[in-house]
Amino acid sequence: MGEVLGQGGDDEPVVCLQCSTAKIPCIFRASLIAQCLSASNGECPTCKYRYSTPGPQPSGTLVIAKDHRSCSGYADVGSITLTYRLPGGTQSARMLRPGQHYRGTARIAYLPDNEHGAEALKLLTKAFRNGNLFLVGDSVTTGQRNTTIWAGIHQKTNLTGGTARHGYPDPTYFDRLKQECASRGIYTDEHEGSLLQNNTSSNSAAAGSVLNSKSNSDDSDSVPLEEAKTTADSVPVFQPQEGDTTLESRIDHLTLLLNKAMADRDIPVIRDLMKQRNACQARKKVVDENGDERKKER
After folding, report:
1. How far apart are CA 161 and CA 77, in angstroms?
2. Cis bond upstream, residue 236 (ω within 30)
3. Per-residue exposure over 261-283, b if at least 16 CB sit within 10 Å of its own CB, e if not
């Protein structure tokens, strides 16, 4: 996630995050960035890139194996089994009721042994290592308190039976799985590398725009950037931005993620998604209003 650069003023390490660029540096004291990432569900406070943060999952093991049986809808490819074993113990400070005993669990999940299953396996393995698949809570199904339950990333516990039995076939399962993992900052290594590269490019472009705007004003008579974007009669000048054409699809995607987070009662994720969606909706309103004005002019 970051590289330790050296000591700060109080002999505290200074950390440079992976999302940092020359024009928009994301460099912080170690204690400060740890608090920020924890409070914001892994979002960099400077450039808003989302990192995965450790979840409250209790200790356990994951064993991955191949099975000759196939998932319904994926004939003759076999399956991948994921066997989870999480023993009981005493709840830590990051769990629901610290100091109290909790029950463990053992679960088996299935994936088709094909390209989709291989990609899903990478996500689930990373989510397990990061502590995002299970948590200690109260089971809605059994009513048991202080027991190990799923943490909101859904898995298939049957080879057949469809969605009613948490099995296959389920045509939209892999898309939903990616969305659930992404809402927690979990991506495949390839996707994460692509996101970092895109984030770096966007930051550099945004910084260049700000720097150019500032360079056009004299130091002796500088004005705020927002004021510099107005005409003589104080009417704001519309400036197209990269991504304006995909705002509607982004809003739809965020709404889907928001509905899932609400179902899981994941408050930090709900707040973050609402903030992102509100920003997209506000920008779309500006874009739509500008489009209407141009039509009137014609």
Report:
1. 18
2. no
3. beebebebbbebbeebbeebeeb
> And the tokens for 180?
């659930």
Residues 6+ apart with CB under 8 A from 246: none
CATH 3.30.390.130 domain locations along the chain: 61-179
Answer yes or no: pTM beyond 0.85: no
Residue that wins the pLDDT comparison between 150 and 196: 150
Q: HSE on the CB side for 217, CA within 13 Å?
A: 15
In CATH, the number for domain 61-179 is: 3.30.390.130
Rg (CA), the chain: 24
Closest listed residue to residue 54, CA positions, set 154, 128, 149: 128
Contacting residues for 149 by C-beta, under 8 A, at least 6 apart: 105, 134, 135, 136, 137, 138, 139
Identify residue 114 by its one-letter amino acid code. N
Bridge pairing between strands 89-90 and 101-102: antiparallel
At residue 62, the 3 state secondary structure works out as strand
| pLDDT confidence band for 221 (50 / 70 / 90) | very low
